[in-house]
Amino acid sequence: MATERLILRRFRASDAEALAEYRSDPGVARYQSWDAPFPLNKADLAVRNFAESSPDKPGWFQYAIELTAERVLVGDVAVRLHDNGRQAEIGFTLATAYQKRGLATEAVSAVLDRLFRLQGLHRVMGECDARNVASAALMERLGFTREGLLRQQTFIKGEWTDDLIFGILDQEWLARDSAAHLDADLV
């Protein structure tokens, strides 16, 4: 799947080094389930597992985010398709050097478009550490509704953390897209 600046694709073996590099950044790993550094052997295994999964079957699938102009892996978007095939959870990670350029918004938008338009999902949810204001802001920008705060929900990296829960429904995503097209037609 391609956007203006990105290719979202299946992971391949050659991505392991870049994955290890951005997952080893303490700033990137701060609110994630893994610890930095993220060794190359662990990245090799992760990439193999990512490559074997399917975006159309229940479970986790990781889209590699490749910056088209530089032909470099800059992050990933994770989707966990529920067993019912109508709901999913989404997560995203972007290398520090590529943050604050709208790339995560572009990548997550493309994945949401696929989930709602092509796969016919009804609902997508996202969850993030309540201190991760950048992730929360991205979901809100994309039209997710903040549905809740789970106090001291997750014990990670030696501390209890609060989690924010977000959700977006198919009709909200599709209406947002229709409204954008209407605005463009008026210009």
From TrEMBL:
This is GCN5 family acetyltransferase. Keywords: Transferase. InterPro entries: Acyl_CoA_acyltransferase, GNAT_dom, N-acetyltransferase. It comes from Actinoplanes awajinensis subsp. mycoplanecinus. The keyword Transferase applies. Residues 6-165 form the N-acetyltransferase domain. It holds the Pfam family Acetyltransf_3. Signal peptide: none annotated. It comes from the Bacteria. GO terms for molecular function: acyltransferase activity, transferring groups other than amino-acyl groups.
